Amino acid sequence: MSQLTPARCPVTHDGTQWAARHMPMLAATMRTHASAFAGRRIGICLHIEPKTAVLVGYLAQAGAEIVLTGSPGTTQEDTADALRDYGVTVVGHRSDDLARHRENIARVLDAQPDLILDNGADLIEGVLARGGLPGLVGATEETTTGGLRIRSWDRRPDFPVIVINDSRLKLLVENEFGVGQSVVQGFMNATNLMIPGARATVVGYGPCGRGVADTLARLGARVTVADTDPYRALEAVMAGHRVGALVDLLPRTQLLFLATGHPGVIGAAEVGALRDGTVVAGVGHMPWEVDANALAEHTVSVRRSGPSGQERAVHRLRDGREIVILADTKMINLTAAKGNPIEAMDLGLTLQARSLAAIATGHSPSLEPGVQAVPAAIDRQVAADLVDTLSRI
To answer: Rounded to two decimals, what is the model's pTM?
Structure first.
């Protein structure tokens, strides 16, 4: 790979230019792999914010035609407008609900992309629902949630899908360290509450949950962890956290972080066990870890306050308890903060670009139809590049 130096992103936007200055690996990747994207039509679903705009700008500069939509509730409108000014087709807005999001996904697929970069498997699901897309070469999927969704379907993709979160490197750097920092930052932005001394419970001790729990503990919170997987529960104990069954932990929990990626984790029994005043934040890709029907059955009124992205919904329950839900459990690091740290996203988006280039060129002999991890050669090379970058700081 050429020398790891940052480049100026072609998208004119202060946040994007600032991000590009701290993303040397992505810049180097695009210098060496730009030809893979020339003349391609790429359908993208990603959080539209400055770091992802750097990748989109580089792809467009390389000669790709981009049709882009965001994930619900996370689009930064000024970044989207800057991309539109550069000639990228951007579909949708921050205020779009799930129904409008599905329409946006359909519009992206209507453009007949031959490469897909997905976030949560919404585009890939749409491809399968249509019976395929002519000329589609393959796709990348950013998230663990998306990978789990695809693997759960009866019908599997007949094209390569590289799940970026299957990368050991990304799980360590972006999910554990990046998500941990950004989630806690978003929580503090939305609440202005004190972390030291607080009783915090993290549900799910995968890489993202681990990062959140460990970051909270470093800041002085008293952290408990709930995870039904005995190996992950053991990891949490070995890291110094108290572990227990969720319903047993909730009565003493002040701050609740949901990081399982699965729907309905907080059901009727858990709502009944919540402590008065508990503040709930979402970490997973989809805002579904609180069972909305179970919460509604307990709720007599809802009082909302706070600016967009940092909304606090105070649910007053029938027995007088009040439960505070932040941003309807959308990802708090994106709704109330600026997403994962730039350097962590440099790594993740470099893996995206290298994997998408491998699909576009067919140069990786390991690629085959169906879901798979980042090719080992790419993962190891990017890891070596990151070590080199950090060693020279």
So the answer is: 0.84
